[in-house]
Amino acid sequence: SQQGEEDPQALSIQEGENATMNCSYKTSINNLQWYRQNSGRGLVHLILIRSNEREKHSGRLRVTLDTSKKSSSLLITASRAADTASYFCATAGLTGGGNKLTFGTGTQLKVEL
Amino acid sequence: KAGVTQTPRYLIKTRGQQVTLSCSPISGHRSVSWYQQTPGQGLQFLFEYFSETQRNKGNFPGRFSGRQFSNSRSEMNVSTLELGDSALYLCASSLVVSNTEAFFGQGTRLTVV
Question: B96: which residues sit within 8 A by CB, 6+ positions away?
Answer without folding.
Answer: B31
